[in-house]
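User: Design a sequence. Structure:
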């Protein structure tokens, strides 16, 4: 059975993209080599054996930390059930870190068989190993310090593209990716750090190109 390094599992509300407002359980995996300077989960980057802790201790965490636990797919599904506010299977978001570092076929199959709806959040820099039924959110990370390129085959798999935007160059990069893609997917613009300048830029570009703006609404209501 596959095991995965899990930083945390918690119930919240999806605050971004097409599923904004959806009660969700997040499974945050450990490990990311992409190196976005403005990342708000830098504690998930390293996968150091010295930071590994028991699963029970990881599930009790209440603060960001680089600690993680190795968990089987079955144990992750059980933890999701325990974390959920509803007795019925709901929406699960697999995020990171960079979850596409790992083979997610077994976990996503277990979740689908248990009745859950699966969403994956990825930078688009790695090939995807996940069930076809998963909803894939690609937040293209272009020109980051890790040196990875956005993979066209991963972009083609996206159900939505959520582009981090801090300056006009990011809009230009998105237009280039869409030109390579040769398609017109669902596009959200996400202002980095929700600065006023970035938000205004996103609003103008969304109006010009028929896109949408995605704000981190979970931060407005004070949840993770």
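Assistant: Done.
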């Amino acid at each position: 059975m596959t095991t995965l390094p899990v930083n945390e599992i918690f119930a919240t509300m999806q605050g971004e993209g097409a599923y904004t407002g959806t009660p969700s359980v997040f499974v945050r995996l450990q490990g990311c080599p992409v190196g976005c300077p403005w990342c708000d989960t830098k504690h998930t980057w390293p996968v150091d054996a010295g930071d590994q802790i028991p699963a029970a201790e990881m599930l009790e965490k209440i603060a960001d930390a680089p600690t993680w636990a190795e968990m089987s797919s079955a144990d992750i599904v059980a933890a999701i059930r325990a974390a959920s506010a509803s007795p019925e299977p709901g929406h699960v978001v697999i995020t990171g870190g960079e979850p596409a570092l790992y083979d997610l076929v077994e976990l996503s199959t277990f979740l689908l068989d248990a009745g859950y709806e699966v969403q994956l959040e990825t930078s688009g820099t790695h090939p995807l190993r996940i069930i076809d039924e998963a909803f894939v959110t690609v937040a293209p990370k272009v020109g980051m310090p890790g040196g990875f390129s956005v993979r066209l085959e991963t972009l083609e798999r996206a159900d939505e593209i959520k582009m981090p935007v801090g300056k006009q160059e990011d809009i230009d990069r998105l237009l280039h990716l869409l030109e390579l893609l040769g398609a017109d997917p669902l596009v959200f613009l996400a202002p980095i750090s929700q600065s006023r300048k970035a938000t205004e830029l996103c609003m103008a570009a969304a109006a010009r190109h028929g896109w949408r703006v995605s704000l981190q609404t979970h931060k407005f209501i004070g949840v993770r």
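The longest strand covers residues 3-13. The mean pLDDT is 95.
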